Amino acid sequence: MSRVISAAMIREAVAKLSISANLILRKDILLALKRAYIKEPNRRAREILCAIINNAHLARKEGLAICQDTGLVSVFVQLGQGARIAGSLNEAINKGVESGYRRGYLRNSIVRDPLLRGRPGYQPAVIHIEMIKGNRVILTVMPKGFGCENKTQLKMFNPTATMEEIKSFIVATVKEAGPDACPPYIIGVGLGGTADYSLLLAKKALIRDINKPNTVRQINALEKELLKEINRLNIGPMGLGGQSTALAVNIQSYPTHIAGLPVAVSISCHALRSATETL
Amino acid sequence: MKKINTPLLKKEIEKLKAGEKVLLSGVIYTARDSAHKRLAQAIARGRAFPFDLKGQIIYYCGPTPRPKGRIIGSCGPTTSSRMDAFTPALLKAGIIGMIGKGRRSAAVVEAIKKYRGVYFLAYAGCGALISKYVKKMELTAYKELGPEAVYRLEVCDLPLIVGIDTTGRSLYD
Q1: Which member of B16, B28, B36, B127 is catalytic?
Q2: Which B positions 153-172 lie with beta carbon below 8 A of chain A?
Q3: CA–CA distance, A187 with A203 (Å, rounded to integer)
Q4: Contact B61, B84 (CB under 8 A)
Q5: Per-residue pLDDT of chain B (173 residues; tens, 9 = 90+)
Q6: Residue B139 falls within a domain, yes or no?
Q7: Model ipTM?
Q8: What's the predicted TM-score (pTM) here?
């Protein structure tokens, strides 16, 4: 029997998630920032990390957005096949985002048309729907600022590309972002699939708890190697030097074609924001 | 730490060195992408500016809406390099300082040297923290741009790092 979930429930859940994602820094990120602060030998880098940690505490305590760029929201919906949404899912999500953003005093950063621009509003969000077993609906709201979104890169490698070539593309992407996208970064990497899908994987990789090791052994090792290399770039917080250039590298992979090897890199600023709820 | 006040005097600016930390007090104006485009159009068409640019400091910032009972919302710096194309003309038109985050183009560094300006870095991604240093906020121009409008801010002891000094020395070199 199908379980009915009302559009109003979805709307309210998305509204609340939009607020909490923007005001309360993820636990795993806060913990990683504190660890970076303890480990960081560079004095100025430590000062900046301290400001970043204070900013997160203050945002939470005073109900302010962690960052003024409250982003363009991606909403990931894992929709149980046994669940039926009464009403329009897309509309419920977009209205939920708008309602949450208005209630939480979050920024209206969305222009109606990429060329004509126009007066900024709150929606639409970018919505990804994936069918899952069961009758639950899992909603993840991920606001991402464009300082870091602008640094996203995709490269279609030959299937014969060496691991070194792939690694150096990922590291070079971080190097190019340099100080501009608010380091220390969290690096999401998508491997495989199609061009578009690898970009989605890279973004989804950012949702995973950064302190939990990847369950795939080789990928886990690759994540660690990349993190080590990236933290040797001496970009550091605000790009003013230090070993805290990235807090984590999260990789997600998918089968791909015999002729290709898509590699996508999605960089997140230190204010990596996402919140999840299961209905 | 060195305290500086707006309007910044030429001889004070000359003393600032890249890498130095300062606490800034006084008036600054927010302006980001869309406002820059409009100011550049005003320059190109020889029109008057909506506020006097002479000697002013531009803060690359689009704050979140002001919550009830607060002076300002979250208000950290945005990426400065997107403003690079407009900056030399604005320096020529009279601004002397900029606050943002990240690198600047070679043309901006040259213009900073030529017009003896200064580029400051604010704590990036710390919009909630920075809001504490803002004592007053007023809409100045381009209301229809929403968060991209020009706001006049009065700040007190805003912590900044000198990113590029009058000699063109950059902290990112």
Answers
A1: B36
A2: 159, 161, 171-172
A3: 9
A4: no
A5: 899 999 998 889 999 999 999 999 999 999 999 999 999 999 889 888 888 889 999 999 999 999 999 999 999 999 999 999 999 999 999 999 999 999 999 999 999 999 999 999 999 999 999 999 999 999 999 999 999 999 999 999 999 999 999 999 999 98
A6: yes
A7: 0.93
A8: 0.95
